[in-house]
Amino acid sequence: MTRMPRSVDWLQRLVAHDTTSRGPNQPLIDEVAEYLTGLGVTTHVRPHPDQPGKANLVATIPAADGGSAGGVLLSGHTDVVPVDGQDWSSDPWVATLVDDRIVGRGTADMKGFLAVVLEAVPAMLAEPLNRPVHLALSYDEELGCLGAGDLVDCFAEVGISPEVGFVGEPTGMRVIRAHKSSYVAEAVFTGVAAHSSLTNQGVNAIEYAAELVRWCRDRADRWRTEGPFDEAFPIAYTTMSVNTIDGGIAQNTVPDRCVLRFEYRAIGAVDPDAVLAEAEQFIAGLDERMRAEDERAGARLSVLARVPGLDTSDGPVTRLCRDLGLEILPDKVTYGTEAGMFSEAGVDTVVCGPGDIAVAHAADEYVTLDQLRACEDFIDRLIDLLRR
Ligand SMILES: [Zn+2]
Known about the structure:
- The protein is α+β, with helices and mostly antiparallel strands.
- The protein is 34% helix and 23% strand.
- The strands form five sheets. Strands 1-2-6-3-7-16 form a six-stranded mixed β-sheet, with helices on both faces. It has a four-stranded antiparallel β-sheet with strand order 11-13-9-14, with helices on one face.
- Strand 1 and strand 2 (55-61) form a beta hairpin.
- The protein is elongated, with a radius of gyration of 23 Å.
């Protein structure tokens, strides 16, 4: 009989924490911090700047000379997507062995990776390493990598600057080195309410918002037909869509408020900040026209999430991947990860972790025992390499 993966115990512990992004992740972080501190690992817990109950964690297993410069970053988010309305065959917060897989929310995305890493910490400590290993656990990744910005700030505060990084999102243990950037923006239109028989006395927030909806669709259509294109992505062009809209209170009242959220995911050839500037310019035009109707009216834009793209070329991390025998995929992916933020901060980063992204947010999410073992082998080989 093949052995049970060593990481199953930690996976059970991690899954038992309901870390749905809307709620706290602190109990999980505290449990990990207690474990690492107990092993003698210097651990920093950084609370969310204004939301109690959320925290990031950074810990370093130093090199033999005590140094924490450079080294390898192993990183994952601790939050998971909601199970609301999903039809689960077992309790999503209990890691349950079913045949050759472990079922539970977050088993693939991405507590499986974290479990493997945490289980391996005593092995990392057992013999001196020639380069440090840094562990980084974040909150609010599923809301648009919101915690990773603070995490990167934390690197500087605690004085670490990892040379290479692995973000353990589920990739089937193959290496992904490029993904699109992903921005989410919110436009708030403030109109002036009036009885709908007196439209001349109101400013219609929905009608102005509709112009932005049209603008987004036109922009998206242009990318789709005219490019630029990058055929390495399954969707070869930059996408944009308006995904929520909220406005109006009654059929006979000119609406004084409309809020919409749109998202775009850009290939490397499209600068997401330039797109944002374009959108801002368009909204400034709407704002001006609204004010011309009534000075109380107006429109403004804010960015809710900003995930930089990832495009890791041949360098330290891809060399390390080859040394570790990992398969590097030629494909680029459309989903964003924290790897983009680490890469922007100077860490040569790839995405590689156990499990299948296709089951990640679904009911009966699972990771196979094989995938956990494959990840354990990867960490074992990494530790081995860091001892030489
Ligand atoms: Zn994830």
